[in-house]
Amino acid sequence: MSILEEILLHKAQEVRERRKIVSEKSLQGSLYFEKPIVSMSAHLRREDRVGIISEIKRSSPSEGSINDQIDVEQLSTGYIHAGATALSVLSDHKYFGGTLDDVLTARKYNNCPILRKEFIIDEYQLLEARSVGADCILLIASALPEKRCNELADFAKSIGLEVLLEVHNKQEIERHISASVDVVGVNNRNLHNFTTSIQTSIELSEYIPDEFVKISESGITKAAHIVELKKYGFEGFLIGTHFMNHQQPNLACAKLIEEVKKLEQQ
Questions:
Q1: At what angle are helices 3-21 and 123-131 packed, to 10 degrees?
Q2: The model's pTM
């Protein structure tokens, strides 16, 4: 059994348990549920932004514990003050050390687009995301059959959420993209063996239709990576581990953004 398969089995059980505790009606009664979202796709297209999606996560299956001394309020606002375009907040607890409250806290203190980073397998999780103020949700092509992925994307759109579709190969692009997708993210990390290369984004860029915002995820550690990926049409760059490995992730974010701007001026 791969790590991804193990996570999905656990997630199915987790969703069943959460349903017993908080009803769908209760989620839909949240103050955030009827508020308009902050569009991630629109913000990533802004020419005055580098396009960094800064991630908040405490651990990961591939890295183990990364940074468990997180104050979500301070880190989220620090990222935005550093120049990040959007936030990605892990809500999975068992494998990434996150919670839904992390998303809620980030929403409370920021007006930027917020992605609920989660292994989404059920509409209930989309209601959860909307109830805590997330603007965008992640659907992982390698974790979902084509039909199920399309159903979840359609439901997300019906409740006002944007959809980030994560892919890792040409077949997933061809099979899983639908009209309900807003952003297509190429995960440079193989979720089955966790090897990473930004060459994956470069090779797949030509297969992503131009109407979708393209982002590159994982393995981005240098300004040169971002400048190179921009040549292939990428407008967003999701960075988590690289920032979180620093004692002050927001300062690492600020430094990277400054380095990108300097390279682009050369």
A1: 70
A2: 0.96
Residue among 134, 139, 135, 142 nearest 118 (CA): 139
Following DSSP, what letter does each residue of the chain receive, concatenated?
--HHHHHHHHHHHHHHHHHHHS-HHHHHTSTTTTSPPPPHHHHHT-TTS--EEEEE-SEETTTEE------HHHHHHHHHHHT-SEEEEE--STTT---HHHHHHHHHH--S-EEEE----SHHHHHHHHHTT-SEEEEEGGGS-HHHHHHHHHHHHHTT-EEEEEESSHHHHHHH--TT--EEEEESB-TTT--B-THHHHHHGGGS-TTSEEEEES---SHHHHHHHHTTT--EEEE-HHHHTSSSHHHHHHHHHHHHHHHHH-
Tell me the sheet residues that pair with 238.
Answer: 53, 217
Name the band, by pLDDT with cuts 50, 70 and 90, for residue 191: low
Short-list 184, 256, 195, CA closest to 227:
256
Distance between CA atoms of residues 182 and 86, nearest Å: 15
Q: Residue for token digits 């967003």?
A: 236
Cβ–Cβ < 8 Å for 251, 240: no
Pairing relationship of beta strands 236-239 and 64-65 according to DSSP bridges: unpaired
CA distance 163 to 41: 9
With beta carbons less than 8 A apart as the criterion, state whether 174 and 143 touch. no
The model's confidence at residue 47, banded by pLDDT at 50, 70 and 90, is: very high
Contact 134, 116 (CB under 8 A): yes
What is the residue extent of each domain of the chain?
A: 3-265
CATH 3.40.50.970 fits 3-265, yes or no: no
